[in-house]
Specification:
Layout lengths: L2 H9 L3 H33 L5 E6 L7 E2 L1 H7 L4 E9 L2 E2 L9 E5 L4 H4 L3 E2 L2 H9 L3 E5 H7 L6 E6 L10 E11 L8 E5 H7 L7 E2 L1 E6 L5 H11 L7 E5 H11 L1 H32 L1 H9 L4 H42 L11 H28 L2 H6 L3
Parallel strand pairs: 5-10, 7-9
Antiparallel strand pairs: 1-12, 1-13, 2-11, 3-5, 3-12, 4-8, 6-9, 7-10, 8-9
Helix pairs in contact: 1-12, 2-9, 2-10, 2-12, 2-13, 10-13, 12-13
């Protein structure tokens, strides 16, 4: 019988307690991995941003509009190689009223040049540009709602009330895919001109924001500042930000939630070490007399400590492994898929990072060793006579 084999047999003496402890560690690992993946995916959305893309919006709020003529000024500004504009439509399919997806009215001539990571078949793109009531939708959105090319779709708008005599009806002319994670695959693109023509005169020729690409990504910050100076004396001032900063500004609104997730993650580690410590301490108390016999047979204090640390490592590794086995389908096929389909703008890629998976198992093992430190120290300090006096 080897030391490892003896350690394993000790764990199996009380199978119910060992299984419950492993499950407790597994639940803690699943929760920990889920929380850390949420934080990493949320922060990661900014990491995928294009370094040479600038968002120019109203200085006061993203929901306030800009005069359309600002687009021409941005396009002609020094350091800008291309630009486009868009407006939030806030559409919703009444047949799927619980499904959220982004609906954006865009300039058909320029939008997909600025966002060249969006791929649309050439024939579909040409058809869409000629069809004022046409739409281009993401492949994930189309699959989720069962939409196909050529299908007619009627949407309600949260910003532009639907006229019963003239509903917002679109023809799906194409389905796009992406080559980068900087754009989600669940957006509905419609013609800005189609929207603008349907609005009353006082609401026409307004846009939500301008997006531009710079000639030099290293000077994006300087170019952003120059754009804002261009409009500093106008009736509407602007705020221009690189795409990463623009994405990060949304994170700031939920900083308290992300901070709470960090606190909960730490609390989970505390719970895990308590669960492990309780199980290990109980096992040590039950086998105190046996440790005395082992000492009498010539085993050293380090051998006794190694038994206890070995049990902690095995429980931690088992709990971590079971936790990951549960976390992968739960996170990547359950929560992750839902977030990518419904909140792709903020969670374009929701997957468990390999480093996080390895770190979670290492954490479970490390906390097990930490929980075993005090029981192992006490057991190794026992003399033979003191150990044999105790009844397990």
């Amino acid at each position: 019988m080897t030391l490892v084999g003896l350690t394993a047999k000790n764990l199996l003496r009380n199978k119910v307690r060992t299984v419950l402890t492993v499950l407790g560690v597994a639940v803690a690992i699943v929760t920990f991995v889920l929380l850390r993946t949420v934080v990493a995916a949320w922060n990661g959305a900014a990491d995928f941003a294009a370094k040479d893309r600038i968002f120019t919006r109203h200085k006061l709020s993203f929901v306030m509009s800009l005069p359309k003529r600002y687009y021409d000024d941005v396009r002609g500004a020094p350091g800008i190689r291309s630009a486009t504009y868009a407006t939030w439509f806030a559409g919703m399919d009444p047949n799927h009223d619980k499904e959220f997806f982004a609906t954006i009215a865009v300039d058909t001539k320029t939008y997909f040049d600025v966002y060249d990571e969006i791929l649309v078949p050439a024939a579909d793109m040409q058809k869409w540009r000629e069809d004022r009531s046409g739409a281009i939708v993401g492949d994930i959105l189309a699959k989720k709602l069962g939409w196909t090319v050529g299908q007619r779709v009627t949407l309600d708008s949260g910003m532009y009330p639907t006229d019963p005599m003239r509903p917002w009806t679109f023809t799906i002319d194409g389905i796009y895919t992406t080559t980068a994670k900087s754009v989600d695959r669940s957006t509905f693109f419609l013609h800005w001109g189609y929207l603008n023509d349907a609005l009353p005169p006082e609401m026409q020729n307004e846009i939500g924001w301008v997006v531009s690409r710079t000639t030099d990504a290293r000077r994006t910050a300087d170019t952003s500042s120059a754009l804002d100076r261009l409009f500093s004396e106008r009736e509407v001032q602007t705020l221009s930000q690189d795409e990463r900063t623009f994405q990060t500004s949304f994170l700031a609104t939920l900083s308290a939630i992300l901070g709470a997730m960090d606190v909960v993650s730490i609390a989970i580690m505390g719970i895990m070490i308590l669960v492990l410590g309780n199980t290990i301490s109980m096992g040590v108390r039950e086998r105190t007399s046996e440790y005395g016999v082992l000492r009498a047979l010539g085993f050293l204090p380090s051998h006794i400590a190694s038994f206890i640390f070995g049990e902690a490592v095995l429980i931690g590794a088992a709990g971590g492994g079971v936790g990951l086995a549960i976390a992968y389908p739960l996170v990547e096929r359950g929560v992750g898929r839902w977030l990518e389909e419904n909140m792709g703008s903020f969670f374009p890629y929701f997957r468990i990072d390999t480093k996080l998976a390895v770190g979670a198992v290492a954490l479970a093992i490390g906390l097990g060793v930490a929980a075993a430190a005090l029981p192992a120290f006490r057991a190794s300090r026992l003399t033979v006579t003191d150990a044999l006096r105790r009844v397990a």
